[in-house]
Amino acid sequence: MWWVRTLAIIASLVLLGACAVFGWGWAPDIERRVLISDYTNSASRFLTAEPGLHIHVRDEGCLTCPAIMLVHGSNASLHTWEPWVSLLGDEWRLVSLDLPGHGLTGPHPTGDYSLDGAVEVVEFVRSELGLDRMHLAGNSRGGRVALHYAQAHPDHLDSLALIAASGVPPAEEAEPETESLAYRMAQSPTLGPVLTRFLPRSWVETGVRDSFVDQGVVTERMIDRYWHLLRHPGNRQATLTRYALPRDYSAYERAAEVALPVLLMWGEADALVPVEHAHAFGRALPLSRVLIYPGVGHVPMEEIPEQSATDYVGFLNALDSLSTAQDVASVR
Fold first, then answer.
1. Residue 305 in contact with residue 87, Cβ under 8 Å?
2. What CA–CA distance (Å, rounded) separates 223 from 227?
3. pLDDT, tens only, 178-228
4. How far is 151 from 141, CA to CA, in rounded Å?
């Protein structure tokens, strides 16, 4: 019968289309040894925090100089700090790390992706490297981790830098944070589990490009790095677990307790964490200074590395001449 043949043709076309889509987005895990070969450098080392948790750390620059620890954002890795490391390494010790569920650290053996868990990883790295005092800088979710760390371990910090940090509660937001494409898909009960095997490179590229205004900064190698490191065994499931956690705004609510000088750095055109959040943090943190960059997106340390690094070092150098809380307040 003609209609039977027609249905068979339609079914075949649908099946072929589904296979084509699946093949287009099929992205299995990449072996850890391959990723380590591709994304470590001579400064990379792995610190064992507990059985099954090996923190990827880079300890670079002037190892006898004052230390800065750098904490990346959600779905990023320590590679986001490479521009600053290359610019600041002559006069500063730069420590960067991959948080659990990110980069080459891979998943946490107990599935702990909480902010408190991230804080204790930062503290473990500090202690393991023998850093009694340090400056701490964090971008996006890494800024939220940094603020939590400052409240949990203030005795080890000389200053704090929050770069497009998340963590302002909805009631305080002039505009809500814009959830990334990856976040929206991961939150879907249908699409979320699929992402552990299906992840088109173009989806990752969209997420990366959303973080920048100057698209010339986004390279094919950068996109590949994000795509590949998400495919470290366990990282995608870690992302789903992390995104399912309830939002924790306690650090912002206790911001007035932070007695450290804080530099707030924000791109005015940040499409993910609106610039209004910089001013909210500025009002909440008593010893803070706000720097806004026109025409810049979510990651100033990558989009305008020279300018942002110069401003950050200027902030740090000014601290040397400050001796009292009143002096620190004068940098606002």
1. yes
2. 6
3. 655 555 555 666 665 666 678 999 999 999 999 999 999 999 999 999 999
4. 16
